[in-house]
Please model this.
Amino acid sequence: MSEAASTDPGQLRQKAQASHRDLRNRINRLSDDAIDLILRDARSHYAWQDKPIPDGLLEEIFEITINGPTSMNTLPARFIFVKSAEGKARLAKSLKPQNVPKMMGAPVTAIIAQDMNFWHELPFLFPHDDRRHLFDGNDAYCKDTAYRNATLQGAYFMIAARAVGLDVGAMSGFSNAIVDEEFFAGTSLKSNFLCNVGYADETALFQKLPRFAFNQVCSVV
Model:
């Protein structure tokens, strides 16, 4: 196949379909151990071992995260990994007092943010149909799309971190306005939530809190 032929939409679609079939034939489902690791038996953590996280591992987590689905492939999330003492001091200004030691003890704290101008990238991210007109001048739709999909990407990030052997502890006890002023002043980015990342000190854990049963919160219609 020539290089030019490989850009043909029909051929690209067939290749994508074949690739997905191959994936499903190769991996039917995750093992119970894998599901336990990423969700079922996973825990939110508040204390951390003094063990650094290399930037290469953060890049791996991002590569997994960025492949998660978002509407129109908008991918509005932006990730700021706070590792330095200076960055931690700036971030601490935004936190409720009880959350400061949780953040300071973690080797990395990720600020999950959304770019309110995400739609400017649609010619690259969604090249087969120009959807920019849906967002241009429609601030409410931009805000709704950015917030929902960046939140999704933040959840993908947490699962990806667990999948590569790290632990996470998400935090919402902070001032978004202070984070935005400290880290995003003069930009189109807005903070969503924070997530500590590292190797947990499990001695700080308490019992897992209750969860609903299927028939308490689900219905099939």
Notes: The chain is about 40% helix and 15% strand.
